[in-house]
Amino acid sequence: MLQGKNLINGQWVGSEDTAASVDLASLSFAQANLNQVEEACQAARAAFRSYSQKSRAERAAFLNKIADEIDVLGDQITDIGTRETGLPEARLIGERGRTTGQLRMFAGVIGSKDYLDIRIDQALPDRQPMPRPDIRLTHRALGPVVVFGASNFPLAFSAAGGDTASALAAGCPVIVKGHSAHAGTAELVGQAIANAIQACNMPRGTFQLLQGSGRKIGGALVQHPEITAVGFTGSTAGGRVLYDMCHSRPKPIPFYGELGSVNPVFCLPQAMAQRAISIGKDWAASLSMGAGQFCTNPGVMLAIKGDSFTALQNAAVTLLNAGPEQKMLTDSIHASYHDGISELAANAEEITDGQRSRKPRHGRSAAFRVNASTWLETPALHEEVFGAAGIFVECDSEAQMLQVAQELQGQLTITLQMDQNDTTLAKELLPIVEEKAGRILCNGFPTGVEVSSAMMHGGPYPASTDSRSTSVGTLAIARWLRPLAFQNFPASLLDADL
Ligand code: NAP
User: Fold this and answer.
1) Residues with Cβ < 8 Å from 226, sequence gap 6 or more?
2) What is the pLDDT of residues 126-151, one digit of tens each?
3) Phi-psi region of 143 (alpha: psi -120 to 50; beta: other; left: phi over 0)
4) I need a surface site. Which of 5, 163, 442, 464 has the fewest CB within 10 A?
5) Are residues 87 and 233 in the same domain?
6) Ligand 1 center to residue 232 CA distance, Å?
7) Percent with pLDDT over 90 in the chain
8) Separation of alpha carbons 121 and 134, rounded Å
């Protein structure tokens, strides 16, 4: 049952300030205050030494227990989650499976010591002109971390999402700043984690959940001296403010922000000649899935202008015009989407029917067309519109296509639709797009991010604030670890892994 409270140091506590839920009638959520931020950060610090020194097996059992507890709450989570986010039941069920899968995956990761990347330089006492000492390098948990729940993934990037799972696996206590778009879902998942803390006898401050406005508590959390790193998914503007706060602290800390991306798709000439209609249809399906509220939404399609590209656009537009109005995550995301498509309409030709939904918080897909010269000189067309809005960029030549690639901002993904006979052009594009993206796809579409060991979900700024890291997949654990070397230590003082 929901209480509308914050989880601080093992207790569910209210506050003087509450916010009524938009979606859950008659329920209000306590908004954490600055004293509670202080209390949570101190509790996380108090938990750190004990939690980080639990054995890998104990932490793995804890992660598995969280997953089991989430499974127990299954239908309740789906019920609250669909009401809060407007996302369909099947999506919530699928996302729950992904969330518990991530927790169990990280339990598996720390089952082996491989993630510690241990390196041992044995002593060379007889080396000339100087002996070499024995040096053993391992990785240790950073300390307490703050995670900002994402609006568009109420489970997989929220209270027990990938950031939390990877940080807990690393040995870091986590304070989640819940997203107001799904406070109830976060609280239910928080209850599952609190149950697992008790069952596994973990320190009370291992996981805490604070609800409240980012401007009120977000800055205080990321600037608190006990916080050692931050995970974030959201807007470029909000992420940049928090990034700057982390880096201007007296003691700067890493900020892992996953921000905006338009995920360009280059359709190369032979693929276009062979498969224009199917590429257009598949692009429309990927663009409009989940009302387009995915960070990997393919918002830009580039190709050389001509009959085939027009046929591709027509195939896509037919599907988009026939598509349903879809409920969006929040009123403000809905409002930003409409501002975004107005901006696109001011700078490009709309080729969908121009109808907008009249239902509250609902959006319809929209597609636009522009020539590459206009795109190149109009920065507003390079920005992400969060929602099912896409733009076709018509290039005069292969040379202009390469020029557009050169001007792209950092991206989470770039896709090449290509056939074998496109290889020469692909070889020219590849060195350019390698500098621009974290993941490059050959055919297919970027939505539906695999959670696996080789996945990279990040990219050069503004796709993310640290292009060396990923927020999806097993490598995500590296964000919460730091290297530590022991020199000439006796075996009796080294841990078993070393
Ligand atoms: P957001 O506005 O950036 O908010 C994300 C989180 O950061 C919220 O908890 C928010 O707190 C907090 N926050 C934002 N600005 C802050 C500031 N100046 N100081 C302190 N905390 C701050 O993102 P959103 O609500 O998820 O959606 C808005 C836009 O983000 C979308 O339209 C889209 O452009 C983008 N977005 C991108 C992705 C992606 O995967 N790249 C995912 C989701 C959204 P409060 O809102 O509680 O105040």
Assistant:
1) 41, 42, 44, 45, 143, 144
2) 999 999 999 999 999 999 999 999 99
3) left
4) 442
5) yes
6) 9
7) 98
8) 6
Q: Residue 108's domain spans which residues?
A: 6-259+464-493
What lies within 8 Å, CB to CB, of 281 at 6+ separation is: 315, 316, 319
Residue 302: CB partners within 8 Å, gap ≥ 6?
264, 265, 266, 267, 372, 392, 393, 395, 401, 404
Residues of the chain above pLDDT 70, percent: 100
258 C-alpha to ligand 1 centroid (Å): 10
**295 tagged catalytic:** yes
- Spatial distance between the Cα atoms of 341 and 330, rounded to a whole number of angstroms: 17
Which pLDDT does position 435 carry in this prediction? Answer: 98
CA–CA distances in Å: residue 245 to residues 225, 308, 374, 411: 12, 49, 36, 23
Here the tokens at position 281 are 């249809």
Tell me: do 347 and 391 sit in the same domain.
yes
The DSSP symbol for 115 reads: G
Q: Does a structural domain hold residue 42?
A: yes
DSSP string, 374-395: HHHH-GGGGS--SSSEEEEEEE
421-452 residue pLDDT tens: 999 999 999 999 999 999 999 999 999 999 99
pLDDT at residue 26 tops 80: no
Question: 249 and 270 in one domain?
Answer: no
Per-residue pLDDT band at 22 (split at 50, 70, 90): confident
* CATH number of the CATH domain containing 367: 3.40.309.10
Establish whether residue 150 lines the binding site of ligand 1, counting it when its CB lies within 6 angstroms of any ligand atom: yes
The answer to whether 246 is a known catalytic residue is no
List, for residues 269-308, the tens digit of each pLDDT value. 999 999 999 999 999 999 999 999 999 999 999 999 999 9
For residue 151, what pLDDT is reported? 96
Q: Could you tell me if 419 and 279 lie in one domain?
A: yes
d(CA 160, CA 66): 8
Q: Count up the domains in the chain and report the number.
A: 2
The domain that holds 170 is classified in CATH as 3.40.605.10
For the residues 192-198, what does the mean pLDDT come to?
A: 98
Q: Which atom of ligand 1 is nearest to the CA of 179?
A: 9
Whether residues 437 and 303 share a domain: the answer is yes
- What is the per-residue pLDDT for 297? 97
Q: Is 215 in the pocket of ligand 1 (CB under 6 A)?
A: yes
User: Of these residues, 258, 384, 394, 395, which one is catalytic?
Assistant: 258
**Residue 161: inside a domain:** yes
In a domain, 459, yes or no: no
* Same-domain pairing of 254 and 381: no
Is any ligand 1 atom within 6 A of the Cβ of residue 19? no
Distance from CA of residue 202 to its chain's centroid?
27
* Residues 233 and 344 occupy one common structural domain: no
Q: Position of tokens 């390469």?
A: 402
Q: 84 pLDDT exceeds 80?
A: yes
Let me know the angle formed at the C-alpha of 78 by 75 and 81, rounded to the nearest 5 degrees. Answer: 145
